[in-house]
Every structure is written in structure tokens, then in C-alpha cells.
Design goal:
With 339 residues, the chain is of the alpha/beta class. The strands form two sheets. It has an eight-stranded parallel barrel with strand order 3-4-6-7-8-9-10-11, surrounded by six helices. It has a two-stranded antiparallel sheet with strand order 1-2. It is 33% helix and 15% strand. The radius of gyration is 19 Å and the shape is globular. Helix 1 (37-48) packs parallel to helix 2 and helix 3 runs parallel beside helix 5. Helix 1 (37-48) links the parallel strand 3 and strand 4 (53-60). It is built from ten helices and eleven strands.
Length: 339
């Protein structure tokens, strides 16, 4: 019987429980994308709170990428020392930390084959840099309609070279990124992926596309796959009622591949989480908004207070300084929220 607090092996690393902190944009980098004291403090607070794996917010790995607003950048060696501060702070509390590597936006069809190959190389270089900075691994961000999720979508990719044509071709960029990352990092460095199970647009990624791409990455040796989709951060989530809105896709994938699958999306209670773990082959769960409201939630649960997360899924954290929970901020106007 699986429980949330099982110790498990992921690749060659040991995890103290089955909880991941899902990548969350905090808008706390400086104007040039550098690590800041505020970011280090935020990640250390999450590590103190008990999650086994902390995945950083989207980190851009190419120069000149689209700006998302005080987002973190990591396209040159000069960023390494700042990130070493973060990884040291997280490791003090027994958590692993992975950098979410990404490109925010860019063309798909217009690039030459050689330009796509250069993107692959830039992701590999970022993984090498991340290991130098002390990260335990990286997550390839192929979800939420950022660049890589558009690249693997038939809605956006109409290429006729080896990076297009069919879903296998559209997926090639991902497994070439994985291969390049492996060639530039040590054997115990974790490489994971976050992927859309659907684009939620007509003509976009289908269930069959998602399963094929994920299977290709599993066969290529990805260490774990976090299953998401467009339409994240849904409102109206209630503990025990409508938790785990990506569970059907994650459950299907977990039954289809041997690679560990991570469930994210609307998880609020330890009872439901343990149910999902035991009724399916899903190995891990990933939380975002509950850990914005209560960074110490996992420690609270482990200490015996198993009341559900206090998060009410209002999404007001997206318009607060540093994307903090409104209920944790003094003198911030609270919207009308019903529990």
C-alpha cells in the first residue's frame, strides 16, 4: 500500500516522500532575470515545509526570450553563482531541487533545421549549468502552451523536416533535448518533463498525441513525467469533491509506461491523494497553490494535522506581490471568497 510519506528512489536519488512542489512563476527575479534574496527565501521556506522535490518556476534558457515579468533567466554561465545560493538553501532542509528549463515563446514553422538543433543544444547547455549550480535535476517544460508545448502540437507545428510531419516528428525536439542533456550531465542527474495532456484547443494535441510523445520520452529514459494541460489553476476546487482534475490522463499514462508519473492539478486533501496513489499506478503528486497558502502543509500533515489544504482556489495569488496568498498578506484587499 502506497502512502504520501513513503521514501522512494527516483533514478539514483532518494526522495523522502511522494510530494513535489509544482513549478510556479513567482515574479521575483530582478530586471535582468537574476536570482534574488526574495527568491532564495521563498524556496527555502518551501523546502522547510516538507516537500521532497522543489521544481523552480519557469527558467528561460535562451537569450532574447519573451519576457514574462521578472522571470528567471539562465542562458549564460554568469547566472550560476546566484542559483548556487538557491540550491544550497534548499538542500539544507533535505529536499531535492530541479530547475524547470523552458523557452517562453518563439516561432515553430519559420526556424531552419539548424536553428532547431541550436535550441536543442541550448537546453543541454542549461542542464550542464544547472548541475554546476547544484541542482539535482531539471524539468523540461512542454506544457501550458509555452514554446515546447506549441512545438509538439499539430495546431502550431506544420513543419515538413524531421521536426514535423507527424507526432513522432513533432516530438523529436524533446527526445533530442533529453539526449543532449544526458550527454552533458552526470548519470545521477535527474531529467524530467512536464507535458500537456491536451491543449484544450480544436486541432491541438490529442490524447493519442500526448500518449505517443510521453511513450517516446519514457522509452528514451526520462526519469519522470508530470501530467498537466492548458487550463491550469482551475477555480472552485473543493477537498473531497472535485480534486485531481488531470487524474484521468495521468492514470492512463501511468498504466501505459514504466516511467514514474506525477499527478498535478487541484489536490487538496491527504485522503484523496492517498486514494489516487493506491487506486492507480501514479507514483507522485505535485502541488502549487496549496503550498502558496501553506508552505508548511506537508510537515503539518506528517505531524498528524491532516485537515485539508486551506487553499480555496480563488487564484488571487496571481495578482499579489510575489504571487503570495492573499490570506497571508496584511492590508491586502481580499475578494469575496466562499469556502
Amino acid at each position: 500500500m502506497k502512502t504520501l510519506f513513503d521514501k522512494t528512489a527516483l533514478g539514483k536519488r532518494m526522495l523522502k516522500n511522494r510530494v513535489w512542489r509544482s513549478a510556479t512563476w513567482m515574479a521575483l527575479a530582478d530586471s535582468e532575470g537574476n536570482m534574488t534574496d526574495a527568491l532564495v527565501r521563498a524556496y527555502e521556506e518551501l523546502a522547510k515545509g516538507g516537500a521532497a522535490v522543489i521544481v523552480t518556476g519557469l527558467t528561460s534558457v535562451v537569450a532574447g526570450d519573451t519576457e514574462i515579468g521578472r522571470g528567471v533567466k539562465f542562458f549564460e554561465d554568469r547566472f550560476i553563482s546566484g542559483h548556487r545560493r538557491l540550491t544550497d538553501a534548499v538542500h539544507k532542509h533535505g529536499a531535492l531541487v530541479m530547475m524547470q528549463t523552458a523557452i517562453v515563446d518563439g516561432p515553430t514553422d519559420e526556424l531552419t533545421t539548424e536553428q532547431v538543433e541550436e535550441i536543442v543544444c541550448q537546453f543541454g547547455d542549461a542542464a550542464a549549468r544547472a548541475e554546476q549550480a547544484g541542482y539535482d535535476g531539471v524539468q523540461i517544460h512542454a506544457a501550458h502552451f509555452f514554446y515546447l508545448s506549441k512545438f509538439i502540437s499539430p495546431l502550431c507545428n506544420h513543419r515538413t523536416d524531421r521536426y514535423g510531419g507527424d507526432q513522432r516528428g513533432r516530438s523529436r525536439i524533446l527526445y533530442e533535448i533529453l539526449k543532449d542533456m544526458r550527454s552533458k550531465t552526470s548519470p545521477d542527474f535527474l531529467i524530467t518533463m512536464k507535458i500537456n495532456s491536451t491543449d484544450e484547443y480544436p486541432g491541438g494535441l490529442t490524447t493519442q498525441d500526448f500518449m505517443l510523445t510521453s511513450r517516446l520520452m519514457a522509452d528514451a529514459g526520462i526519469d519522470a513525467i508530470e501530467v498537466s494541460a492548458n487550463g491550469t489553476s482551475r477555480t472552485g476546487i473543493r477537498a473531497g469533491e472535485n480534486e485531481g482534475y488531470f487524474r484521468a490522463a495521468a492514470m492512463a499514462l501511468a498504466a501505459y509506461v514504466n516511467t514514474p508519473v506525477v499527478l498535478v492539478g487541484g489536490l487538496r486533501s491527504i485522503e484523496k491523494i492517498n486514494q489516487f496513489l493506491n487506486d492507480t499506478k501514479i507514483e507522485y503528486v505535485s502541488l502549487s497553490r496549496p503550498l502558496i497558502r501553506e508552505p508548511n502543509l506537508i510537515c503539518r500533515w506528517q505531524a498528524g494535522d491532516t485537515a485539508p489544504s486551506k487553499c480555496v482556489s480563488c487564484n488571487s495569488c496571481y495578482r499579489t506581490p510575489g504571487h503570495q496568498c492573499i490570506f497571508n498578506l496584511k492590508n491586502f484587499p481580499h475578494p469575496h471568497v466562499t469556502k
